[in-house]
Each structure stands twice: as structure tokens, then as C-alpha cells.
Structure to design on (1255 residues):
């Protein structure tokens, strides 16, 4: 319950932050909302030497839509994302996911960047970013780079972010007409990490067939991943329950879940299929309603 | 009587039957409750505990040198230190022995291994992290069946050469031969194994204490989360005496404060308390210990862990003839279950339930394993949760097997109202009951016939809907002195009432609220008997220097025992008040009439004295030969337990895709005899139902084969939120207890006892047509899904 | 190890303190400032007994460092009543028997306050979801829901009296 000792600094801007990360590389840990990091620190599962509080670093929490993408600052809280007008109007997928992360208090303070950088293999945001083929922007002293979500989640609690980088922005492709997405989470009780969860994005062509599909799964592998086999089943075909079941089966087959307190392997694999199925149904309804 | 009568007193007096708003709430809603972590004494030190990561290991060495270098760490205490004071082992409330700190062997994961004393909470935690312990792992036994096998590692060699076994005790009740004969002769003989896993009370406040040894006054004050402060005081005195320490019972004051939930988890004497006392004694300063949630879940008293083999015999029409149960009770490494000494398996032999049949036999073997000790907690009424789950499950299996409606089968087997008092085959004498009325009321409230119709329609469409019934009989109010004691101390309880000259009342009781509202309900009992308004009655408890000796609050005993003592004490005062009134009114006592709050002369209602005037007179105008003052004390030895009961009906819908069980509706009809405060009773029912739902669908403490606790934090120990809990629908019947002074029975645990089988029965009912007869709780989605998957259902 | 100087305003009163960076906000409130109404019930940020308001939004004070609260406005249960006048939520919890042991109650009331600030007319389901970060072991939640519903009605009526028009449900 009581953290070990650590140093603390609150830089005034991003440049100062990056300098500190370079100077104290290896022992510095970024603190955003703190709702992923502080629980670990309290149990002494993480013992950083230096906490770098991003609180005073401005410009990292905006939510704006450009011609190409919805830009979400890494410091945007789950709550801010949920309540943003553009999200409420056109990105119901993001309301799906921010409705089920933790609980109301967590959503008030936890940030998308903190959650994504932490990369718990059963956390919610990664599946959404994988399904929408989002990109993540990281800044270092040497510059800025964008990383595709599908290259970002490497292993358990491991992302592509370098120790001297700050994740600054998440970019979700601007929603075109005929596209819809949904997130289906199976959890043991409200607020839990996912037992299994699936994010599905469906883009319908003018002929009503699925032109593009994205499926992100969490809770069924050592890291969240894109169910590319399921995407292949869907692409080019007309939506139907039978098609979605086949896609779900492919998602289940591509999963490599661990048996644990959330369920045995067979169950999780079946639920990967079930959540994919349910997400596809809702995503397609939304796509058809947004023609 | 099955309807609530009008209260006898006015709302201003607030006697029985009034939903008086709670007197304790003003401080809680303002955040001004005083819980143990709010208690801080000048100069106090903090105690934190080094715990074993292994479930079974030899301690090769403990190196505290790095810890002692940390500024602010005052001391590190190990088992070897305590051994010097003969404090390393102490008795449990069950009469077994437990380690305060191990000298050479740890017996469960998270066992206390060393205590760090420091100047702050934070430094103490740093000290714990810096203590280095070298362990040598030993073979681990987590399965009690394996513990009983020949050649199994003997976990407790300390018990002596003639007890080199992991069987703690064997206990029996009932008639084995007659029961076996009946079962063999039965038309229908059903056998079912039922396992109820470990769960944990997880009250939102964890356990803690501030131990304050004053070396000048040679007095120990122990501020503590305890449901039974007097028993703790006596145990401490005995342990100190055994260790030759100058801590005597008249110089021990156990003081409870506000307690944030108990549910049985704050009954046992945990090593943390003893370590704090020992540290305070050795150092001469107050020592504070507050456990973390992880420590609480991983080391404190668990509940359940009963492996039951249950058999029921019946005629082909479903008339029950016999019931048998053989149970392995997994107690962890020592028997610390605070059961009455004659009942090591608690009141498990109430397993004959609400049904009328001649023969039953129950046997239980307590077994040691490498797990934390405990067993009775989580609102179980001394193992009644286990017993009721067993009987209500097999009764439901019986009904389904012979194709009879489960409500109908119960009605046909109930003990009927005219049969009370009813002697069960295992020796209990049920005081009163009306089981058919409760079940009928539940059925009417939920429209049972309509539900069965809906179920048939849904089943035809392949939808999975289930209806489950539980008609339980509870047994609470331990207990009569000829049968009940804890460590030899009889289980009476007490109340001392003192009326002040200006007509205000101070009453102290031997029980201990942890949220049950005693400051209100016990005042209501006195208000009922004497007519003082509830607002004028102050209830105190929990300070062993002032409260009369009692055995505390658990197993729903407060109203049955201390409530009775309160009524009897109040009646003693009423008797003296009559004498005073007669003196004041210059009439004879026989000519006086009593109504709550005053005595008046029969036939002359304008000639009366209020109870307040009488109180004043007790100090200013008492008759010659009478003692001044107006007070009384009663130590109540209950003649019997009380037997609350109820019928619950649960409706579930099962999500075929995920296996998730949704409790759509839950109707609970409870009968706890005469009701003191209907609002508080409903609150107890709501809370109890929630603690019945939790282990039915969510909560479970499991261990892997190395004895690692797999649900040691709230991440994995799934306490339900408001989202998981349905809107409970409640109703009442009222069948007073004929032997209780106010006709009341206990109620705090009824719902935790009655709810799980209702839920389990509903799920099995939904799946019976697939060949399912039993699913052990918690009924998780993966368990249900596996069944559906096997049957090709999605 | 160096301490950090912080300035926190709690229930309208500003406090200066030099704290270890690792000091949890809940311990600053309870142990340093003596405001013991906020409780600790777990160590994994699940139970919500430690819920306070920070800059108007509910937060679990056990999952924040005191240094993160520097310069912020904090409200605890001790700041809910207006002198002798209880907040409608406090009154409602009392009226509806929404508490038994009282340990979860401060956090529950604080969370309920922001729930109603965000949604003045919540449905029962919205209430249950709105307090899903607060565990109660005693009440079974039924009366807590009733208390929040009572407070919502009273607060809406009071707002209507002030503005002269019904408060729009969100």
C-alpha cells in the first residue's frame, strides 16, 4: 500500500520533459493521470527512481478533427474523450470504450496516453486503436515519429515507445461515410480489465459489401493484436450473421490466450469469437446508419 | 400472525415497529465517525508485518540488519524473540493453538513472519521491505483430501505424538444407522457432492488496533476492531498470564470504536493484535497496526471451504424420509473458527432444514491444510450457510428428478405451523415457524405461476430461463448455557440500564455493532418497555471498562440474547417504577395501569405519573426501605436459540453466448419474529442478499498447488458493485418467538444463508433439461459456458 | 530524499506542506491535515472509500500523490455540509437508511455529488453505473440508490426555485 521512495519533478514543457528523460534514462517514468502507474507503485511492483509529472506540460490534451484524422492528445482523460462533442456526434466507438474503462473516478483522471503506454494485455484502448488502424505520435529530443498501432503493441506491458520519448498524440482515421465501429467487452464485473474484448471497424462500399474491416482483440494474447485472419474473412463480402460467425471463429483461432482466473483457454478463445461477432453486428448497424 | 401490527408506542417514543431514523448516522454522514485508523495517540509507533511468500517453508534465517539501519525503524520482532516470552503460540477461540510468529516453520502464504516497529506508517513499510528472510520450501498441502491420505506430511507435529494426523477432529450428529436404513429403503435416493469454496468477508474497513501499555499505571488499553471485546480481554489476560506478564484483566481495557463492517471477520484474535500488544509492552509506547487490504484478504479469517457429500431419501411422491451429509472441513493450518466449543462444525446439523422427516445423520472431519486459518465468518451463523445450501440443493434435485414442481415439493414436506415447537432429528427444538405462509407470499409476490408459464414458452424457443427457490430455516442467538460456550465462557449476554433524575436513560450492552444500528434498535427496545422517547436513550457498548460482560455480535445473536437482556432489564426497572408510582399516587400497585410512558390509577386516568416524574422521584422521593436510583442489569441466558426463516425466489436468464447469469428478479420473504425497526431489518436483508449473491456468482478464494492465493486483492476477489446487484424485493411474515421476551429473532445473516441456494437452484433449473444437476458456486460464466458448449448450445 | 513543497486548498482552506513525493493524497488528508472522514479501504484502487473532489471532479485520493494535488482545490466529506445544514445527499442518506457501518459513506456521498452534478436526473441504471467505483458491503445498494434519487429530486426542486424553471434532465 505504501510506495517506495522516489524523486519527483514537474517540468514546465515538453522540451524540459524530454531532457529529463534523456538525463535520467532508465529510472525516469512518466506520470500522466497516474491510474495505471500509481497502483503499481503502491504495491511496489514498479519502483521508478524518478517520477516525471506531465501535469504542467500543455498542449497534449486537445481533441480535434482534421480532414484526415481525429487527433486526441495523450493527456486527454477518458472522460474528456467521452464528452467531446465530435466523439458524441460521430465516434460512438470511442464512447463504447470510454464507458467501460475502470469506473467513473478512473475515467475522470486516467488518460488515454497513460493507459496506452502502460499496455496492459487486457486493457481497452489498444483493441480500439488496432481496429481503427490508428497511429501514435511520439516525440523525442531528435524529433517526432508516427507509429502504426499495429506496430505499437509489442509484448506484455511493452510498447514501441522508447524510454526517451513521450507519447503525445493518438490519431484515429477520420470516420468516412459508410463506416462504423463498436467495442464489445466481456468482463467479470464492471470495471475489470477485459476477460476478452473485441473492437470491430467496418467500412461498407457503395454496394453494401464490406470494403474494409479492422478487428482488434485484447485479453487473448500476450499483447493486444489485430485479428488479421478475421479481417480477411470479412473483406469483400456482404455482411451477414453467418459471415460474422466465420470471422469470429477466425479471430478465436488466431488468439493465443492464457488460462487464468478470468477463464480457461477454451473459454477465452470462444469468447474472442463471441465478442467479435457482437462487435461486428453493432459496427455494421452503425455503418449502415452512417451511409 | 403474518401481518405487521401497528406499533404500540407513538412515533415520538419510537418503540418496536417504528422505522426510527438511526441515531448513529449524524456522525457518519459528516465523516466524523471514529474508526480505528482515526485513533492516534501521542508518541505512537507503527507496526507493519513481514509476510511469507511461501505456503509451507522452513525459516532458515531472518536478517533484520538492513531494516534496522533505516532511520525511524525502532525494532524488529521475530518468533525467536516471542519464544523468550512464551508468546510465540497462543490459543485460538476454537481451543486449538496458533502462531503469533513462527520460530522455524511458516504454514500459509502471507503468514506473519516478523514485525517491524517504526515511527511512521511509511517507514514501517520500508522496514518490512528491507527484512531479508531465507526460506526453505516444504511440500505444500492445499487439498484436504490429500491431507487425509496415508503418509501425508503431518502439518502440525506440535499436537503431540498421539495426534500425528492432519485430521483435527471428527464430529457427528444424528442417527447413522436409522438414516442409512431409511436411505437404503427409499424409493428415491439422491447423492450429490457439493463444494462451497473459500470466501472472505472483505468489510470495507480492514482490521487494526492501537495497543497502549502504560508502564506507570501498568494498564493496557487496546483500541481494536473487535466484535467481541470482553472475550478478547479475557483471552488476553489468560495469554499474558500464561506468559508470566504483569497484564491482569482488571488492568486491561479493550475499547472498540466505530467499526466499518465485521461480518465475523473481526472476531478472531489475529497475530497483528498480539504483536502490537507485545511491542507496546516491550517498548512502553502506543503501537498502531492497520492491515492493508491485501493482508486482510490473504491472511485473515476466511469462511466456508466445505466439501460435502449429501444424500437425501424420499418416497416416489417426493416425501422426504432421510438426509445424510459427510463433510470435509478445510480449516487451514489451525482451527481458529470461533465456534462454540461443543460445535466444531458450528450448527451444521441444522441441515434438516424446514422439512419434516424422521432421520438424519451428519459427520464432519476438520482437516489441516497450508492455508490461513478460520472458517466461520461471512454471515454464516456458524456454518448454517453451508447446511442450508446443501439441503436446499438436494431438495431441488429431488423435485426435478421426480418431475414435481419445487414449490409444491417443499409445501408437501414443510414442518407445519401446528407442529412447533419442533424437535429435529439432530436435536434442535425449533421455536416457531410458518413455512407455507412465507413460501406462498413469495410465490404470490413474484407471480410464480406466471413465471413457470413464461419459462415454458421461452424453453420452447431455446431460451434459458430459470426459477430457483430457497426455503430456509436459520438458527441464531447462541446460546443456552447448557450447550454453548466459547473457550468455556458461556454465551449469555447483558444489558445495564440507568435512568437519570431528569428522565434520560443510559444503557450499556455486551454486544458490539459494526453497522447494525444498535444505538437505535436497543434504544427502541427500552422505549417500548418504558416509554422513554428513543431520543432520550443513549446506548453504549464496546468499552470493557464500562459495558457489562457480553460475548459480542456475530451469528445474529444480538437481538436474541442482548435484546432479551435489555427487555428483561427494562422490565425490572418497570417493576420498580410501579412501586415508585404507587408511592407517588398513594395507590396500591395492583390498582395501577401501565401504558408506555406512564402509570395511571385504574378508573381515574387523570391520576397518573409519567415515567419521567417517576425517574425524578427515584432520587428525590423514594419510599422508605427502597434503594434510591432507578437502574437494573440483566445477564440473559437464552432458553433456546431462535429460528428465523424465509422463502426466497430467484429468476435468472442465461446469456447463451457468454454463459453469463443475469439475476432478473429476486423476491425475499423473511420472518424474524417481531420487528424492532422495519427499515433497519430491510437494510440487513438487502446487505445479506448481496452477500449471498456475491459468492453465488463472483467471489472465490482459490489456491494453486503451491498454495499461492489467486484472489489476494480486489482485482481478483470480485466484490459486487451496484451494477452487479439487482433491485432486491422484500416482504415479511411475522411469527414471534414464543420464548423471547419481545418475540424477536435475529435477522442479520438470514439473507446470506438463504440466497445462494435460490440462485444456484435457478441456474440448475434453467439447465436441468441438459442433464445438469448441480453447479458449485460461484457460478461463473465459464462454468455455464462449458456446459452449454458440451451440449452444442450457443 | 528531498521533500516537495505543496499548497493545497481543502474545503476552502489553503494548507502549505513539505511532503515526500510518495505521500499519497489520502494520507495527506487524513494524517497530515487530520481530515479523517476520507477512508482507506483497499490497496488496488477498487473500493472508492477514499473518493474526494479535486477541482470539481471525483477522484480516488489513494491513487494520487499529494504532490499531484499541488495548487488544486480539494473537497472532502467534511466540506459538504454548510455549517449545521446538511447537504441534500447527506440528509438523503440518513433519511433512506443508505448507510450501516458508515465506512464507505463519505466516498459514496462524494461520488454521488459529482454524479448528480453531471446528471441531475439519472435513471436507476445510471445511478448504479455512476457509483460503480464505490463498494459497499453492508447495504446491498438498494437504499443508496434511493438516497441518491431523493437528493436528485430535492436538488432539482431547489434549483427550480432558484431559477424559476424546471431543471433540464440530461
Amino acid at each position: 500500500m505504501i510506495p517506495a521512495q522516489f524523486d519527483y519533478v514537474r517540468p514546465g514543457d515538453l522540451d524540459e520533459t524530454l531532457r529529463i528523460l534523456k538525463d535520467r534514462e532508465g529510472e525516469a517514468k512518466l506520470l500522466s493521470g497516474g491510474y495505471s502507474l500509481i497502483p503499481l507503485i503502491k504495491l511496489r511492483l514498479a519502483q521508478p527512481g524518478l517520477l516525471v509529472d506531465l501535469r504542467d506540460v500543455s498542449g497534449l490534451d486537445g481533441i480535434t478533427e482534421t480532414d484526415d484524422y481525429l487527433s486526441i492528445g495523450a493527456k486527454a482523460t477518458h472522460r474528456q474523450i467521452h464528452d467531446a462533442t465530435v466523439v458524441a456526434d460521430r465516434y460512438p466507438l470511442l464512447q463504447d470504450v470510454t464507458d467501460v474503462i475502470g469506473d467513473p473516478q478512473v475515467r475522470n483522471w486516467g488518460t488515454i496516453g497513460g493507459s496506452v503506454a502502460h499496455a496492459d494485455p487486457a486493457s481497452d484502448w489498444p483493441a480500439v486503436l488496432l481496429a481503427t488502424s490508428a497511429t501514435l505520435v511520439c516525440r523525442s529530443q531528435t524529433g517526432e515519429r508516427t507509429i502504426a498501432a499495429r506496430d505499437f503493441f509489442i509484448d506484455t506491458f511493452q510498447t514501441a515507445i522508447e524510454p526517451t520519448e513521450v507519447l503525445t498524440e493518438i490519431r484515429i482515421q477520420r470516420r468516412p461515410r459508410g463506416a462504423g465501429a463498436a467495442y464489445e467487452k466481456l468482463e467479470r464485473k464492471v470495471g475489470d480489465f477485459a476477460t476478452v474484448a473485441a473492437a470491430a471497424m467496418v467500412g461498407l462500399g457503395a454496394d453494401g459489401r464490406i470494403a474494409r474491416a479492422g478487428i482488434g482483440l485484447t485479453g487473448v494474447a500476450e499483447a493486444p493484436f489485430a485479428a488479421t485472419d478475421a479481417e480477411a474473412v470479412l473483406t469483400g463480402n456482404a455482411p451477414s450473421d453467418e459471415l460474422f460467425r466465420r470471422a469470429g471463429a477466425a479471430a478465436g483461432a488466431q488468439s493465443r490466450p492464457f488460462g487464468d482466473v478470468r477463464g480457461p483457454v477454451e473459454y477465452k478463445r470462444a469468447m474472442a469469437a463471441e465478442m467479435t461477432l457482437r462487435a461486428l453486428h453493432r459496427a455494421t448497424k452503425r455503418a449502415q446508419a452512417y451511409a | 400472525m403474518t401481518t405487521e401490527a401497528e406499533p404500540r408506542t407513538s412515533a415520538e417514543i419510537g418503540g418496536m415497529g417504528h422505522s426510527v431514523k438511526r441515531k448513529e448516522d449524524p456522525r457518519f454522514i459528516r465523516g466524523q465517525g471514529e474508526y480505528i485508523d482515526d485513533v492516534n495517540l501521542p508518541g505512537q509507533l507503527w507496526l507493519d508485518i513481514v509476510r511469507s511468500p511461501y505456503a509451507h517453508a522452513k525459516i532458515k534465517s531472518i536478517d533484520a540488519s538492513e531494516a534496522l539501519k533505516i532511520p525511524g525503524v525502532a525494532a524488529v520482532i521475530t518468533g525467536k524473540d516471542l519464544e523468550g516470552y512464551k508468546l510465540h503460540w497462543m490459543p485460538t477461540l476454537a481451543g486449538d493453538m496458533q502462531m503469533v510468529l513462527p520460530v522455524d516453520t511458516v504454514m500459509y502464504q502471507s503468514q506473519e513472519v516478523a514485525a517491524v516497529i517504526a515511527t511512521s506508517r511509511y517507514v514501517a513499510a520500508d522496514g518490512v521491505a528491507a527484512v531479508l528472510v531465507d526460506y526453505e520450501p516444504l511440500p505444500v498441502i492445499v487439498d484436504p483430501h490429500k491431507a487425509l491420505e496415508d503418509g501425508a506430511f503431518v502439518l502440525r507435529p506440535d499436537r503431540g505424538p498421539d495426534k500425528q494426523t492432519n485430521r483435527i477432529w471428527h464430529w457427528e450428529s444424528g442417527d447413522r444407522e436409522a438414516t442409512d436404513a431409511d436411505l437404503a429403503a427409499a424409493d428415491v435416493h439422491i447423492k450429490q457432492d457439493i463444494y462451497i469454496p473459500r470466501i472472505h468477508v472483505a468489510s470495507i474497513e480492514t482490521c487494526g488496533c492501537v495497543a497502549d501499555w502504560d508502564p506507570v499505571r501498568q494498564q493496557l488499553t487496546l483500541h481494536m476492531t473487535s466484535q467481541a471485546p470482553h472475550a478478547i480481554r479475557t483471552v488476553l489476560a489468560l495469554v499474558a498470564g500464561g506468559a508470566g506478564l504483569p497484564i491482569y484483566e482488571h488492568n486491561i481495557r479493550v475499547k472498540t470504536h466505530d467499526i466499518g463492517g465485521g461480518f465475523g471477520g473481526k472476531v478472531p484474535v489475529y497475530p497483528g493484535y498480539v504483536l502490537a500488544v507485545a511491542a507496546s509492552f516491550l517498548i512502553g509506547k502506543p503501537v498502531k497496526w492497520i492491515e492493508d487490504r491485501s493482508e486482510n484478504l490473504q491472511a485473515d479469517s476466511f469462511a466456508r471451504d466445505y466439501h460435502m457429500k449429501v444424500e437425501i431419501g424420499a418416497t416416489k411422491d417426493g416425501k422426504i424420509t432421510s438426509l445424510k451429509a459427510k463433510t470435509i472441513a478445510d480449516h487451514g493450518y489451525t482451527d481458529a473458527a470461533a465456534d462454540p466449543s461443543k460445535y466444531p462444525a458450528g450448527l451444521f446439523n441444522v441441515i434438516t432444514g424446514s422439512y419434516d422427516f424422521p432421520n438424519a445423520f451428519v459427520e464432519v472431519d476438520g482437516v489441516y491444510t497450508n492455508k490461513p486459518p478460520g472458517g466461520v465468518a461471512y454471515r454464516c451463523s456458524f456454518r448454517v450457510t453451508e447446511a442450508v445450501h446443501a439441503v436446499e440443493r438436494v431438495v431441488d434435485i429431488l423435485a426435478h428428478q421426480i418431475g414435481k414442481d419445487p414449490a409444491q415439493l417443499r409445501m408437501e414436506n414443510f414442518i407445519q405451523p401446528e407442529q412447533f415447537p419442533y424437535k429435529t432429528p439432530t436435536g434442535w427444538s425449533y421455536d416457531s415457524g410458518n413455512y407455507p405462509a412465507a413460501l406462498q407470499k413469495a410465490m404470490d409476490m413474484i407471480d410464480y405461476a406466471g413465471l413457470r408459464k413464461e419459462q415454458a414458452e421461452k424453453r420452447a424457443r431455446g431460451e434459458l430461463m430459470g426459477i430457483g427457490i430457497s426455503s430456509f430455516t436459520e438458527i441464531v442467538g447462541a446460546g443456552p448455557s447448557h450447550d454453548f460456550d466459547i473457550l468455556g465462557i458461556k454465551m449469555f449476554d447483558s444489558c445495564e440500564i440507568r435512568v437519570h433524575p431528569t428522565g434520560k436513560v443510559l444503557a450499556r450492552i455486551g454486544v458490539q455493532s459494526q453497522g447494525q444500528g444498535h444505538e437505535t434498535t436497543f434504544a427502541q427496545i427500552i422505549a417500548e418497555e418504558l416509554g422513554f422517547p428513543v431520543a432520550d436513550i443513549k446506548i453504549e457498548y464496546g468499552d470493557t471498562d464500562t459495558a457489562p460482560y457480553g460475548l459480542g455480535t456475530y451469528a445474529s445473536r444480538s437481538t436474541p440474547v442482548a435484546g432479551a437482556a435489555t427487555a428483561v432489564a427494562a422490565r425490572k426497572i418497570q417493576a420498580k417504577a410501579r412501586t415508585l408510582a404507587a408511592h407517588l399516587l398513594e395507590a396500591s400497585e395492583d390498582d395501577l395501569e401501565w401504558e408506555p410512558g406512564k402509570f395511571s390509577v385504574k378508573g381515574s386516568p387523570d391520576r397518573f405519573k409519567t415515567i419521567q416524574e417517576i425517574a425524578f422521584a427515584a432520587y428525590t422521593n423514594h419510599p422508605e426501605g427502597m434503594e434510591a436510583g432507578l437502574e437494573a442489569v440483566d445477564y440473559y441466558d437464552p432458553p433456546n436459540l431462535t429460528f428465523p426463516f424465509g422463502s426466497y425466489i430467484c429468476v435468472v436468464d442465461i446469456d447463451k453466448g457468454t454463459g453469463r447469469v443475469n439475476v432478473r428478479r429476486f423476491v425475499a420473504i423473511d420472518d424474524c419474529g417481531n420487528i424492532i425497526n422495519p427499515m433497519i431489518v430491510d437494510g440487513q436483508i438487502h446487505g445479506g442478499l448481496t452477500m449471498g449473491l456475491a459468492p453465488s456468482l463472483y467471489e472465490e478464494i482459490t489456491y494453486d498447488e503451491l498454495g499461492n492465493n489467486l484472489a489476494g486483492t480486489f482485482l481478483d476477489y470480485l466484490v459486487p458493485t451496484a451494477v452487479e446487484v439487482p433491485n432486491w424485493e422484500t416482504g415479511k411474515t411475522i411469527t414471534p418467538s414464543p420464548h423471547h421476551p419481545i418475540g424477536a429473532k435475529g435477522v442479520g445473516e438470514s439473507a446470506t444463508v438463504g440466497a445462494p441456494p435460490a440462485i444456484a437452484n435457478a441456474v440448475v433449473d434453467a439447465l436441468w433439461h441438459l442433464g445438469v444437476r448441480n453447479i458449485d458456486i460461484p457460478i461463473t460464466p465459464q462454468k455455464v459456458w462449458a456446459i452449454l458448449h458440451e451440449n452444442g448450445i450457443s | 530524499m528531498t521533500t516537495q513543497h505543496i499548497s493545497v486548498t481543502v474545503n476552502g482552506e489553503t494548507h502549505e506542506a513539505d511532503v515526500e513525493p510518495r505521500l499519497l493524497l489520502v494520507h495527506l488528508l487524513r494524517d497530515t491535515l487530520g481530515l479523517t472522514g476520507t477512508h482507506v479501504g483497499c490497496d488496488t484502487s477498487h473500493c472508492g472509500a477514499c473518493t474526494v473532489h479535486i477541482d470539481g471532479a471525483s477522484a480516488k485520493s489513494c491513487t494520487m500523490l499529494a504532490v499531484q494535488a499541488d495548487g488544486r482545490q480539494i473537497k472532502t466529506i467534511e466540506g459538504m455540509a454548510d455549517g449545521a445544514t446538511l447537504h441534500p445527499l447527506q440528509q438523503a442518506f440518513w433519511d433512506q437508511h443508505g448507510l450501516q457501518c458508515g465506512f464507505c459513506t463519505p466516498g459514496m456521498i462524494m461520488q454521488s455529488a459529482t454524479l448528480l452534478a453531471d446528471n441531475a436526473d439519472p435513471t436507476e441504471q445510471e445511478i448504479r453505473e455512476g457509483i460503480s467505483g464505490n463498494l459497499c458491503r453492508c447495504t446491498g445498494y438498494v437504499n443508496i440508490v434511493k438516497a441518491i434519487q431523493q437528493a436528485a429530486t430535492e436538488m432539482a426542486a431547489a434549483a427550480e426555485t432558484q431559477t424559476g424553471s424546471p431543471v433540464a434532465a440530461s
Observations:
- Residues 121 and 169 of chain C are 5 Å apart (CA to CA).
- Strands of chain C lie at 4-10, 13-19, 51-54, 57-60, 73-75.
